[in-house]
Fold each of these.
Amino acid sequence: MSARPLAVIGPTGTGKSALALAVAERIGGEIVNADAMQLYRGMDIGTAKTPVAERRGVPHHQLDVLEVTETATVARYQAAAAADVEAIAARGAVPVIVGGSMLYVQSLLDEWSFPATDPAVRARYEQRLADAGVAALHRELAAVDADAAAAILPTDGRRIVRALEVVELTGRPFAASAPAIGAPPRWDTAIVGLDWPTTVLDERLARRTDIMFADGLVGEVAALLGRGLREGVTAARALGYAQVIADLDGGGDGEAAREPTFVGTRRYVRRQRSWFRRDHRITWLDGAATDNVERALAVRRAGTK
């Protein structure tokens, strides 16, 4: 690939989008989103999606490509986003990948392959989920793959169904069919990570949550419920959205979802850090530094052939 891609990754709330946009402006880049929930049309406030008016003319890809009723999958994203990266480089621009959804980032940067799917098998398990309930299906998974059952929340029907499907199709444990960390890289991508000290990032996350509610997150959720959000398998589980839905369903006005949203986001950040710290290709940048654009460009230049 003639134009070496640059990936800007890291935990939620660190300023990745702003850094990626500034870098793209400097080098004639185009942004490729790697945030699973920013794939959805209308999920703007709660995902901190960069508004069109603030993109400063930089093309953005893999934003607003799904309706909230559609299911986002890593495999589908991988194929579409990889095609975007290739097309950007082919026209002489620099692909700038940005996001914090761990599997989405990893699937794009590395040569990951996914177990086959069988719509008939999945439909059968989905029907059993509807008929018998998630607890019964989780017990069934435990009987055939105890490790998978231990790793998947007993309330996560979607993942339980997928695990049962994979076990039936492959005859192997679910984990054995999962893509491995350390898979060959897809391209010679320069990777920078953005982070802050935990206490500072927690303060940023609290402000971020307050801003989202002030900017109308509850109203956004209410509007999306009218477009089928409640039926969305993945969109309805997004941080902020799930908490607002739960409060509205309980007769609240959505405001009580503020604290659970912050707590859930903080917990998610811990998971992101744990995941990304395993990848030793990443050059970490201090979120408070004022020269991160130059630092990111230097990382990219260092490996350019």
Amino acid sequence: MKKLLVIFLIGQLFLLSYIFNKSIYEIYELNNVGDSSLNEYIIEDFSGNKLNELYEEINSTYLSNKDFQLQIVKTPISKENHFIYDIYHSELDNINKYKSISLNKKFNYYSLTKEDFVDSNGIFSTNIKLDDLRELSKKIGITIKPYSEDVSYSKIVNLSNINFVILLILTQLVLFIYTFTRIKVNAIKKMLGYSNFKMIQASFKDFILIESILLIITLCVHFLYYIFIDNIVLRYFYLLVVYLIIIILINIVMLLFTQFSLKFIDISLMMKNKIYSNKLNFILYGVKILLIFAITLSISSFMSNYIDYKDKLKTLDQYKQLDGYFTSNGFNYDEDTKARKNPNIIKEYGNSVKKIYDQYDKKEQLYVNNAYVLELLSPGYLKMNGLEKEDVYNSIKDNHIVVNERYIKDFMNIKNENGTKITNLHVEKPSILVPSKYKSQEFKVKEIYIKQYNDLLNYNNNFKISNSESREINDLNIIYIDNNQEYELLGQVYEDDSFVKLKDTILIIDQGNFGSLYYYDLLNSGDLYFKLEQRDDFSQILAKYQLDKLVNVGTLLTPYMDELHSVEFIMYNSFVFSILFLFTLIFVICISNYVDVISNNRRYAIQYIYGYSFIPVFKVHIIVYLLLLVVMFINLFIDFNIIFYITVLGIDFIVLLYLYQKIIKNDIHKIVKGG
């Protein structure tokens, strides 16, 4: 039994240390970038001048004293799925410069200068008291508030809450069985005069020794791995030790709960070799049934995650054509915030994006796809506003997208009124494609979309840029298309389903004449696509126009890959849990049936001698199995893997028959003699 306990405990520690490595420490690392002893604050409605004034005040009043520190962290920019964090600190020599344990994440440390502080997004960390900061903010004319962007650790529990509960119950059960299998040893000790306290002490000493050895083994595995990849981070190992010790302490407390069994030691029964009672048999049998049910739910969850993962792979295969199209995979919030507060910077960014647009539009390598309507079709928005998808589909104003002709030609299958596919539009005037069912409402359609078109032409006015020319159109060319057309927008990721389709959507044709900052926002949101040979080509384009600090490089496949990796992590998490659970379930099935046969060996032996057939001997078990099969109907309400459930019940019965054959039939003479 001790060997089985050791196998379970090492499996438990490996599993939980894996979760620590992949989830807990990564969250800790993100929540403690740089000097984590400092408090974080945010400046509201700031400008470069205000940041300059604040830095001057802090520098002259506090930073001359080494006890006060100031830090900013630049939001990471990713390149080839690598994330870089730039940490600027006023006392760089006095802080721990931790590395990341992730090979795709890097922390760079720099001494903080005024220029760095002014070139930030208004979020900073310091140990200056909040009251003192408020005094400074009043003096300068800004507002400073405490700020927190920490990721919650509860996300880990929410991800696998059922599995964690099952693991907790399993651990308690294994320790319970382990304690009861030592009942004969404890009975002998009791006969020799050992007190309950001494027996508990001996049990704990043995258990702590096992856990200590397993702790060292687990740490060695982690240490050897990080030596192999040459990335030893002492902070990681300090926290891992603390984490594993907490797990071990929880195990010790759970072991303590099992020590009540010492009260049930019956010396007379031990003398008669009756180690296991019927009471223990009933308890184990009930626990086994609950365990089979719970682990079936866990396996069902794993199978569901696996199917989801396979579906995502199929979806990815369908979208392989997107691999040669590049766009931004997120943007630098710090840089964007700074730009939006400075009209000159935002104007330059807009001009740069427009130059890229014109350059690659001429090469026929640029695509526009702006589909805000997808947000209106998201389950969250529909539920919040009490709407159905049809309500959005039937809205003349909301059900529209902005695309260029090239996107329509290469990615969409749109038919004209006669049902013929539109291949070449060649529009020269401001135009929209409208389902023919709106012909009777042409005046209303024009009224709405002339205004919408003018808003896009004068998009730069939203940024209060001086010398922006107002442009307007008074008429729109309407091209009517077939009704009830449905199509998926490749390159877009949806909240609930990768195959959500648009229906009866009005298409605004982009001709490259909208406000430059409209294209700036499209680039940030990943709605401008470039057809290029490789990723470096896109990186070079961004660098040429000083946009490489603003956006992250990605293909149109990137969002699907991110989603796939998320599902992959959940699946592997479920898989590791399932392996441990399966091993434990087999162990519990063996122990439970062993106790059943041993505690009822006299009855089984007598029935065997009198020639009872298979069914009468196991009549109670068969009835219980039939009742348990009724549980299969739970599949109508929750995800429940019936095949696995029936297989486990079958294995349980086979183990019972095997032990009956081995213990009762083979040793019938010993049992009859009272052995």
Amino acid sequence: MKKLFRFIIGQVLAIKAKQYLKKNHTQVIAITGSIGKTSTKEAIYTVLKDRFNVYRSEKSFNTPIGLSLAVLQEKESGFSSIKAWFGILRRTFFGEKTVYKKMILEMGADTPGDIKKLIKIAPSAISVVTNIAPVHLAEGQFKDIYEIAEEKGSLIKNLSPDKLAILNYDDPLITAMETRAQKFTYGTGPNALLKATEVHATSKHLIFNVTYGVQKERFTIPVLGKFQIYVFLPAIAVGLKMGMSLQECAEALSKFSLPPGRMNPIDGKNKSIIIDGSYNASPATMEKALELLMELKSDRKIAALGTMNELGDISKEAHLKLGKQAFKVVDMLITIGPEANTIKEGAMNAGMSEDDIFTFLDSEEAGHFLLDKLEPKDLVLVKGSQNRVRMEKFVKVVMAKPEEAPELLCRQGEAWQSI
């Protein structure tokens, strides 16, 4: 019964979303990729918002229902609340919607065919493909990274020649994608149209140069980690294709802030520092997070790492590798979730003492364990997948001001708090 209700809701919302876009002649900027869709969406919005009539949902709405909710400017989904869904339907049919001429929308894919469903709701004029990584490999999802690339590539495959595809030139699986659309490439290599050079990171900023034709500009953005370069290059590309200069893009991005749970520094208890990557995790993002932790200076480095979900047959291997990677970086390792012992095994196989590893099933319990052991200047990396792990609960326990959780942490809405 619930599935039927959700299906009907989804169909109704999709129809209303399509009607909104058609009626208002709204230009859709679509983003897909395995990692960083929401951060890229925020970066594009930051570049465009002072120049254009543009909207983006603050949520990570990237499923068919979620995409429709984003177009219809809803702030939350109904989750399992029938009352909440009826409220959404009431606003959809009788509420007034602000007219936006541009919308930045995420398009995710958990299974083959998902992107095609999203394109039917919101055909894009500009499509961004960020990266391809091994995620969603559980049974019933994708069989390998090449099938993931094929699915993500379906966003641009049938675009007409008057549309635009903005592509990560540093990812060979993306450069191999077919499209009839105009291509605009970005990357750190010499052959990309939009090139980033001299990329380096400080304890507070990402700094890099960008060249495009005869234009050259230096960017200084308040985020941690060199890997974040791939969040900003597509945003700069969109800005340029919208008629902005590199200087205007640099000025806009100097005020950028990442969404909650995306490697944000937060003050921790006892004058510690937390790097909050609690929103989600995959092997690729875990590796980059640990590389960042290695680069930052601290008397003691701690990693609280949760299970990475939906890895299918590669799950054990990936979690063993994660433990090995953590051993090279941290003084204390806290592992959380169904694969906690596998991460521990990987770290011990690499040479880490069992005395420095602590395993938990529950993230909140793990947070309380660390609370009594935090020392001034400790640097604590927190990262893990969202379902079954919920690492933001760990962060809430160890952050200096838990009353700021609604503003600083991910998944703080009423529906999430009831789960």
